[in-house]
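Q: Please design a sequence for this.
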């Protein structure tokens, strides 16, 4: 499966932020695949997706934290088992910081 920022209606600086999130998801092992980045037009970069713990992880930070909270209510503890604690999806800044500090 191929995913591009513009498919999630993201452009410009938001596309750059989304790519950083995707790099973090890859580094943390929550997503498997490879990222083909377009330095001139980030919205045209492509994530060649092999696997993901949940497709909503690929959404914008705002959408991802909303999905995480909903998912945690439906499946308590499932995200924590993946290393995604409630503090991580408390707000967009916490989410992007956590992804940016991936090993």
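A: Design:
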């Amino acid at each position: 499966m191929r995913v591009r920022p513009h498919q999630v209606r993201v452009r410009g600086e938001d596309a750059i932020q989304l790519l950083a999130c995707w790099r973090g998801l890859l580094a943390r092992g929550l997503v498997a695949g490879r990222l083909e980045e377009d330095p001139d037009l980030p919205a045209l970069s492509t994530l060649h997706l092999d696997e993901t713990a949940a497709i909503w992880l690929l959404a914008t930070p705002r959408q991802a934290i909303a999905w995480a909270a909903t998912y945690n209510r439906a499946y308590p503890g499932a995200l924590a088992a993946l290393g995604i604690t409630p503090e991580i999806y408390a707000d967009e800044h916490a989410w992007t910081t956590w992804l940016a500090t991936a090993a």
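Q: Thanks. Anything notable?
A: The longest helix spans residues 12-27. The CA atoms of residues 52 and 74 lie 19 Å apart.
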